[in-house]
Amino acid sequence: MISRFFFPDPLPHTGEIQLPEALAHHASRVLRLREGDPLVLFDGHGGEVSGILCLRGKSCFAELGGHHAVERESPLQLVLVQALASGDKMDWIIQKAVELGVAAVVPVQAERSVLRLSGERAAKRIEHWRQIAVSACEQSGRNRVPTVEPVAGLREYLARGHAGPRLVFDPVAGHRLASLPRPVDAMHLLVGPEGGWAEDELAACRTAACIGVGLGPRVLRTETAGLAALAALQTLWGDF
């Protein structure tokens, strides 16, 4: 496979550009690409640019070969509203959600979230998750990088309002994904933390007109539920 890289600035379609230091290090030192190897660059604004790697001393350049209007985005606008999960679970969730075509991720602080983030620590973690989203786009072929929003409290998120449907996953809910109509606007998927949503959080979701949805008779882990729902929705109405 031809190596793909996210370029942090708007890309010209032709000519030659110098690769940023981190990108150059990854290409030449980690992947061990050589002079003349093909590569693909994308800047997150749609499409991709083919190129050839050029090495000059410690610097790396790409000789660009034209823009290709390739889109691999899902026809569904799916937003994962994920309660903070502990350890490296959030890394896993964001990586796989991007691979499954999510349009954005909204991390929320829930009452039972083991992980607690605020201030500078939250900002650093968000930047880390954004880099995971970029890497997942490089791997999966996506040319538009999903947004990873700053951490918000659940009620803060609910107060923003939303034109499209918001689904809150609850093992005892009566609705099933297959019984819902195909979304016209962006659909938000609310996934609870390891201990599940608290009763007052579920009540707040109902007050905000969220639709309670179950994912079968089994209780899924927080790192499984959102990804299973994304895959199911892609099968129902997306590009699976």
From TrEMBL:
Entry EC number(s): 2.1.1.193
A Pfam entry, by short name: Methyltrans_RNA
Ribosomal RNA small subunit methyltransferase E methyltransferase domain ranges (all copies): 73-234
InterPro entries: Alpha/beta_knot_MTases (IPR029028), PUA-like_sf (IPR015947), RsmE (IPR006700), RsmE_MTase_dom (IPR046886), RsmE_PUA-like (IPR046887), tRNA_m1G_MTases_N (IPR029026)
Top enzyme category: transferase
Swiss-Prot/TrEMBL keywords: Cytoplasm, Methyltransferase, rRNA processing, S-adenosyl-L-methionine, Transferase
GO MF annotations in UniProt: methyltransferase activity
Entry function: Specifically methylates the N3 position of the uracil ring of uridine 1498 (m3U1498) in 16S rRNA. Acts on the fully assembled 30S ribosomal subunit.
Protein name per UniProt: Ribosomal RNA small subunit methyltransferase E
Originating species: Aromatoleum diolicum
Lineage: Bacteria, Pseudomonadati, Pseudomonadota, Betaproteobacteria, Rhodocyclales
